[in-house]
Structure formats: structure tokens, C-alpha cells
Amino acid sequence: MLPAAKFLQSYFGGSMRIRTPLSVVVPCYNEQAVLPALHERLSTVCRGLGTDYEIVFINDGSRDATWDAMADLAARDPHLVCVNLSRNYGHQLALSAGLRECTGDAVVVLDADLQDPPELLPDMLAVMRRENADVVYGKRVSRAGESWQKRAFARLFYWGLAKLSEVPIPRDVGDFRLMSRRVVEGLTALPEHHRYIRGMVSWLGYKQVAFEYHREPRAAGLSHYNFQRMSRLALDAVTGFSVRPLTFALKAGGVCLAAAVLTLAAALWSWAGGSVPTGGLLAALFLALAGGQFLAIGIVGEYLGRMFSEVRGRPLFVIDQVLRSTHGAIHPRREAA
């Protein structure tokens, strides 16, 4: 038996054992072109571990033939589980659906674009075994194939999040990570709708160690994370793990009030000296006050909007169909999550 298989059986055995020693969870959106290579590389790595495993693909409302490609692969691979969401919910909720559906005692998460090499999984398992850790997260040493704009945005994002977050969240770390079953169960138990999985894992605690690696270029297609999606993820990260923007609005209001007092004092001084205050000075004061008010209202609105999403009590996502193959036969399941 290979070392990785012995580790999976010993470390996750006993009461924690569910059905499968290892699950690989992969959210997919318009990944038809890369699915065959992704499936082949994942299967090769998992077979080499010498233990039972499952690969969970989640179709996040793709517009191409991603779901058809998944169904075709599932018909030929009994280790493959395919989850079809009813529409596009976004990467973080698709990942949440996969974590809820998987049965592994150890769970690895990676993106479908193969920028996070599946071949690193045995080394990550070795780190988990050596460090007796619950989480081994991939820390990017380099980011090949990414534009300077995206790299600059990422540096700014991680710097800002480190300054604002009340929970320490590692820098240059994505969703590529290996987790124990109790961490996965902790994640699925958290109810918030605006999810930032990386921050949620950090919030859960347990022993977490870094695994440095070089991120590769996309195997096929273009990145689906445009500036708008990255901005939304950044907003979810900040509002989900910090109330400091609210205190910033309070401080900004104080600055605006101080500026108003100083401007009023300058205007009175000018009037006492016989001159009339300039319109530009008054216009600047008005703009400063108005800008501060709108900023404060906008920040409070973001938090209130998120509170409204939580109290509505809607499900995080709706699963249209789940495909599991056993003994060469496909067993579909339909449900709302």
C-alpha cells in the first residue's frame, strides 16, 4: 500500500470515516474545452495514490456543452460525480455545492483551468501527514500567464484585506487547498449567502499550513474572472470579515465635520476682514460633505443588503441534477439544496 493510502486510512479512519477516503472538488463554468485533460490528469494522480477516491465536478450554469461533457465522462468513470446547478450561482456557491455533495474524509479543492496542478496532491497529503494539519493551502510563489493588471489587483486586494479583516487571511492564497472532513463539515454548516471560502476556512481555525507552488497558465480558454467578478469577490471578502468599513465611514464623517468647521472659521475670518468668501471654497465644502454622506450611506447599504439576504432564508443554491455512476449505470438525482 502506498504511503498516501496508509495515511488516508489511518489519519481519517474510525468515526470520521464516511464512504470515500479522498474527494476532489472542482467547480466548472464554460470549461468544455479543458474537461477531458482535467479528468485525465486528476484520474491519473488519484489512481497513483492507491486508495479509493471520487472526483466531484460542479456545473455552475455553463452556457457551453460542459454538462454534456460531464455526463459523458460520468458514464465511463465510476469515480466521477457530476452536480448540475439550476443556474449560474458564481464560483463560491458552486464550490459550496461541491463541498456539500462530496463524501471524502480528505477533500482537495482546485479550479478547472489546471492552473493549480493536480500532480501536487501527493505532496500536499505528505505535508498534511507530516504536520498533522487539518488544512494545507496552496500559496502562490508565481502566477504564470496572468496580466500585470490582474497581478496588481491581486496584490492590492490581499494588502487591503490584510488591513481590514478581523481574521488573519494568508496572502497570495486562492481556493486550492486540502482539507480534513471536520473542516469541510464546518464550512457547510456556516449559513451565510455571500461566501468567501478562503476567509471562512481561516475563520474556522484548526492547524493550517502553507504549501508553496508555482501557478501555471490556463490549459485552455480564457479566465472567467473579469474585473467585475473580482471586485464582487473583494467586496464579499471585506464585508464578510470586517466591520471596519463602518468605522471608516464614522471617521470620514468626523473629518468632513472638522473640514466644515475649519471652512466656516475661514469664511468668518474673511468676512471680518472685509472680503467675501469665494464660491470655490464653499463649493469644495459642499462636495466634501456630500461625498462623505454618500460614502457612509453606501457602506451601510452594503451591510444592510447582506443582512437582508441572510434573513430571507433562501437556499444557497438549487441543484438540478446529480449524476453518480455505479457498476456502469448512471443514477441521477434531482433536488433543491
From TrEMBL:
- Give all residue intervals belonging to the Glycosyltransferase 2-like domain: 23-185
Does the record's keyword annotation contain Membrane?
yes
Regions crossing the membrane: 248-269, 281-304
Q: Kindly name one Pfam family recorded for this protein.
A: Glycos_transf_2
InterPro entries under this entry?
Answer: Glyco_trans_2-like, Glycosyltransferase_2, Nucleotide-diphossugar_trans
Please provide one cellular component term from the Gene Ontology annotations of this protein.
plasma membrane
Q: Which domain of life is it from?
A: Bacteria
Where would you find this protein in the cell? Cell membrane
UniProt membrane topology term: Multi-pass membrane protein
Q: What GO molecular function annotations does the UniProt record carry, in alphabetical order?
A: glycosyltransferase activity
User: Which protein family is it in?
Assistant: Belongs to the glycosyltransferase 2 family. GtrB subfamily.
Name this protein carries in UniProt:
GT2 family glycosyltransferase
